[in-house]
Amino acid sequence: MRAKNDSVDLDALCPELSRLAPLIDCCYSAFECLAIVTATTNGHHMKGSLHYRGLAMDLRVKNLGAVPRQRSLHSCLKRNIDAMYPGLYDTLLEDPGGEHAHIHCEASPTLLAQIDHGVVPA
Ligand SMILES: [Zn+2]
Questions:
Q1: Residue 38 falls within a domain, yes or no?
Q2: What tens digit of pLDDT does each residue of 61-99 get?
Q3: What is the CATH number of the domain that holds 70?
Q4: What pLDDT score was predicted for residue 63?
Q5: DSSP single-letter state for residue 70
């Protein structure tokens, strides 16, 4: 997993998000693509977005090619994350096929509650 450029700080991610890196790399490799992070805390997001807390990241999908491949990678990623960390992440394919297509992955309300109660990540 690498940053698209210097505007993206991978170190700004909380450990609860950065622990997904091996899974993300694995899924992208299966599609013979690099996992490029386009946003962590940088960029413009909705007010109150988990991006600003380092609890969300965006991943490039345009390097995968056509929409069916973007959807396949997304379901691969979602399945693997849900298998390893059931209920702890929301992984969404935003604007598939569009100019701003990306995968948005964030801590779920369940994980947020754990973080707020000081539960150490597994
Ligand atoms: Zn996002």
A1: yes
A2: 999 999 999 999 999 999 999 999 999 999 999 999 898
A3: 3.30.1380
A4: 93
A5: H
**Tokens of residue 1, six digits:** 């997993």
| Ligand 1 geometric centre to CA of 51 (Å) | 7
Q: Tell me the H-state helices in 1-122.
A: 15-18, 21-30, 67-84, 109-116
Q: Which domain range does residue 103 map to?
A: 2-116
Look at the pTM and tell me if it is higher than 0.85.
yes
Classify 118 in phi/psi space as left (phi over 0), alpha (psi -120 to 50) or beta.
left
Residue 69 lies in a domain: yes
Tell me how far the alpha carbon of residue 40 lies from the centroid of ligand 1, in angstroms.
8
Q: Is residue 75 part of a domain?
A: yes
Ligand 1 centroid vs 105 CA: distance in angstroms? Answer: 7
Residue 121 lies in a domain: no
- How many structural domains is the chain composed of? 1
Compute the distance from residue 50 Cα to the ligand 1 centre, in Å: 8
Q: What's residue 61's pLDDT?
A: 97
- Separation of CA 55 and ligand 1 centre (Å): 10
CA of 91 relative to ligand 1 center, distance in Å: 10
